[in-house]
Amino acid sequence: MVRFKNRYVLCEVVSEDPRCRQCIEDRAVGLAVRDAIGRVHGDYGLACCSISFTVKYLNAYTGTVLLRCRKDSYRLLCSALPFVRQLESRNQRYPCFLNTLHVGGTIRTCQKFLIQYNRRQLLMLLQNCTNEEERRCIQKSLLSCSLTEEQSQSGDEEDDDGTETD
Amino acid sequence: MAGFADLNLPQGPDKKSLQSLLEAAAHLGYSAVALNHVIDFKEKKQEIVKPVSPLELFPSLPIVQGTSKRIKVLTRLTLVVSDPSHCNLLRSTSANIRLYDIIAVFPKTEKLFHIACTTLDVDLVCINVTEKLPFYFRRPPVNMAVDRGICFELLYAPAIKDSTMRRYTISNAISLMQICKGKNIVISSAAERPLELRGPYDVANLGLLFGLSESEAKAAVSTNCRATILHGETRKSACGVVYTVKKPRKVEEEETPLPACKKVKTQA
């Protein structure tokens, strides 16, 4: 079968400043990643990687980003991701960095990984829970996360119940 | 599978920033971390102080993401040597040096690099990434260091901060790769703030930039670090380590089957 093969890179935006969360938008993240590729690999690298480069999925609450690029140039992209230092949007700059979680060939494998990862995060949050109410909320969402057949818009991952212990 | 380790976290005087660094490292998935104390002989004579035990500094260590164990914190000493007389400190039987888990040396001249690789009793040799190397690597000392189990260390925090440092880092790293073929390399951060740390997957991708193959780059973050930690432990404890392994008992086939009572006697 002749088709274009892509690679999907799943990353997490980690930052110290809680206001950075509202700055996470697809345009800002795409610009930051393109800028880092341009700085590290030059014009050639930037041109190669931007053939099929988009930000496919973004979750501002957990800071999860899914990027897509061509299979031939995913190494250029992955090796430039550590050099992303800040996100910029609406004239505001926040220092942050990207942590690569998973590289997959399809969105479905990345989604499966993300569900497992979020489940582990929820378990760790459960350990740090102090309130009985929060505990029940988290346990309910842990039991209900799964990959169902219906392709809903945002996938079937969980977002945190607002009880982030950063 | 060896866990990921970051062997160079500069030890500043501020306890809170160290705590936030440790939490960031645990969140990213590092199972062992070494706090680095740098001694530079160019300044006035400094005393080698006893390493502060990590248990005193941090009452509760964070749990590593993905496992259920706490992060391991080791102590490390780096000596910046620019003169052969500075190495005497290593040869002297000063009690304080023996207490550190890992000892690293940062040679500034070719002669010192040769001495560090061949005779000095260290675990890591740091490679300068912030300026153009004043000497070229030669094959004999590098091969001797690989035989002795000494690893070469590259830092990546200067590369993230500044663009000229990035060029020096990449050129020095690639010239090292051409000589040592990617063996015994350790990549570590010298991160002063949690924002300068990068996850182990990302650091392995950085290794690709330095000319390593993918398996060598992953080994640079996990297996070689574990080898260095073990090397430091053997240096602390004894001149060598003896591993005992139980050999499976060979069942010999006999031509004439012995009656049961006799078999029990011979086996007991």
Automatic annotation (TrEMBL), chain A:
Q: Which UniProt keywords apply?
A: Nucleus, rRNA processing, tRNA processing
tRNA processing among the record's keywords?
A: yes
Q: Which GO terms describe its cellular component?
A: nucleolar ribonuclease P complex; ribonuclease MRP complex
Sorted alphabetically, which Pfam families does this protein's record hold? RNase_P_Rpp14 (PF01900)
Location relative to the cell: Nucleus, Nucleolus
Protein name, UniProt field: Ribonuclease P/MRP protein subunit POP5
Set out the biological process GO terms recorded for this chain's protein.
Answer: rRNA processing; tRNA 5'-leader removal
Per its UniProt record, what PANTHER family does this chain match?
POP5 HOMOLOG, RIBONUCLEASE P_MRP SUBUNIT
> Which GO molecular function terms does the record list?
ribonuclease P activity; ribonuclease P RNA binding
Q: Which Gene3D superfamilies match?
A: Ribonuclease P, Pop5 subunit
Q: What does this protein do?
A: Component of ribonuclease P, a protein complex that generates mature tRNA molecules by cleaving their 5'-ends. Also a component of the MRP ribonuclease complex, which cleaves pre-rRNA sequences.
Give the protein family.
Belongs to the eukaryotic/archaeal RNase P protein component 2 family.
Q: Tell me how this protein assembles.
A: Component of nuclear RNase P and RNase MRP ribonucleoproteins. RNase P consists of a catalytic RNA moiety and 10 different protein chains; POP1, POP4, POP5, POP7, RPP14, RPP21, RPP25, RPP30, RPP38 and RPP40. Within the RNase P complex, POP1, POP7 and RPP25 form the 'finger' subcomplex, POP5, RPP14, RPP40 and homodimeric RPP30 form the 'palm' subcomplex, and RPP21, POP4 and RPP38 form the 'wrist' subcomplex. All subunits of the RNase P complex interact with the catalytic RNA. Several subunits of RNase P are also part of the RNase MRP complex.
> InterPro entries from the entry?
Pop5/Rpp14/Rnp2-like (IPR002759), RNase_P/MRP_POP5 (IPR016819), Rnp2-like_sf (IPR038085)
UniProtKB/TrEMBL annotation, chain B:
Residues crossing the lipid bilayer are: none
Any one GO molecular-function label of the UniProt entry: structural constituent of ribosome
Supply the InterPro entries for this chain: Pol/histidinol_Pase-like (IPR016195), Ribosomal_uS2_CS (IPR018130), RNase_P_p30 (IPR002738)
GO CC terms, sorted: nucleolar ribonuclease P complex; ribonuclease MRP complex; ribosome
Record localization: Nucleus, Nucleolus
Keywords on this record? Acetylation, Nucleus, Phosphoprotein, rRNA processing, tRNA processing
Extract the signal peptide range: none
Q: Which GO terms describe its biological process?
A: rRNA processing; translation; tRNA 5'-leader removal
Write down the Pfam families for this protein, in alphabetical order: RNase_P_p30
Name the family: Belongs to the eukaryotic/archaeal RNase P protein component 3 family.
Q: What is this protein called?
A: Ribonuclease P protein subunit p30
